[in-house]
Design brief:
Shape: globular
Low-confidence stretches: none
Number of helices: 16
Radius of gyration: 19 Å
Strand content: under 5%
CATH topology: Hypothetical protein af1432
Order of helices and strands: HHHHHHHHHHHHHHHH
Mean pLDDT: 89
Structural class: mainly alpha
Oligomer: single chain
Length: 277
């Protein structure tokens, strides 16, 4: 098995080096959002016009504005109102992440199932990350959401490669090992190519490093905690880790053995649902 894994890893590395392995391209609406964000003249109506280019993203953002994370007494029904409530830069970051949903589609039952599962994991981690950032750190929930939505973006080129190699697609155990081995590096390369902020680019490469010893709380810490919270109760080996010994939990001041308060649990559940659906 180790030899097979090395052969596939070498094939993927060679394909990447020779530009035969296509890295995902940021969706057009996401590019437009990033450009608008960089323009100091952009206001809420202008940002709404850009985000409205994708009706799905616009609708999702309105749902986010009405979620427990941002909800107030007044129901939000229109995109400019949603942006005003969430904040211009916050809305831009969340919308950028939501635009990536279209990348998680493919042909063939096996590949489509894996892509859908990858997007579900991304949204689950992003929802947890938003709430963890809000309640346990001084970092920005919108940036934490974006970090969560992109933490496993390196899976996409691997699944595309597997779609062209049916034997790999059929061997889920081997495919999982390939993904675990390669997706962190690929993820960082993709985000760097998209010119995302450095603190977001580093997340794919560090969120699985459970022995990290740093003093400053980062988005990697938030995503790492959120990932392990998401894995809790599953059969994945990471579900068995002792979170009390992991530095990121200590930095956020979270005791994994404690039950979440009802309001916090509701916000996490709502955040994951609204991002996925």
């Amino acid at each position: 098995m180790a030899n097979v894994l090395q052969v596939i890893q070498d094939d993927l590395s060679e394909a990447l080096a020779s530009d035969k392995l296509e890295l995902p391209v940021l969706p057009e609406v996401a590019l437009a959002i990033r450009e608008a964000t960089a323009d100091p003249k952009t206001n809420a109506p202008k940002m709404a016009a850009v985000i409205s280019q994708d009706a799905g993203v616009a609708g999702h953002l309105i749902k986010v504005a009405n979620s427990p994370m941002y909800r107030s007494a007044k129901q939000i029904e229109h995109l400019p109102m949603a942006i005003s409530r969430i904040g211009l830069l916050n809305a831009a970051n969340i919308a950028t992440g939501l635009a990536m949903k279209q990348m998680y589609s493919g042909t063939g039952a096996g590949l489509e199932e894996l892509l859908r599962a990858s997007w579900k994991r991304a949204t689950d981690v992003a929802g947890f990350a938003a709430v963890n950032a809000k309640f346990f750190t001084s970092l920005k929930p919108d940036q934490a959401t974006l970090a969560g939505l992109t933490h496993n973006i390196g899976v996409l080129p691997i699944l595309k490669f597997a779609g062209d190699h049916p034997k790999l697609l059929e061997d889920r155990n081997l495919l999982d090992r390939v993904i675990e081995k390669l997706h962190p590096t690929l993820g960082m390369q993709i985000l760097e190519a998209w010119e995302f902020p450095k603190e977001i680019c580093e997340v794919p490469g560090c969120y699985l490093r459970f022995d990290r010893e740093t003093d400053e709380t980062t988005y990697c810490d938030i995503v790492q905690v959120s990932y392990l919270q998401r894995m809790k109760g599953t059969s994945h080996p990471h579900a068995e880790l002792d979170c009390s010994q992991i530095r990121s939990f200590q930095k956020l001041g979270i005791d994994e053995a404690e039950e979440l308060e009802d309001d916090l649990s509701e916000q996490m559940s709502s955040a994951t649902d609204v991002l996925y659906t």
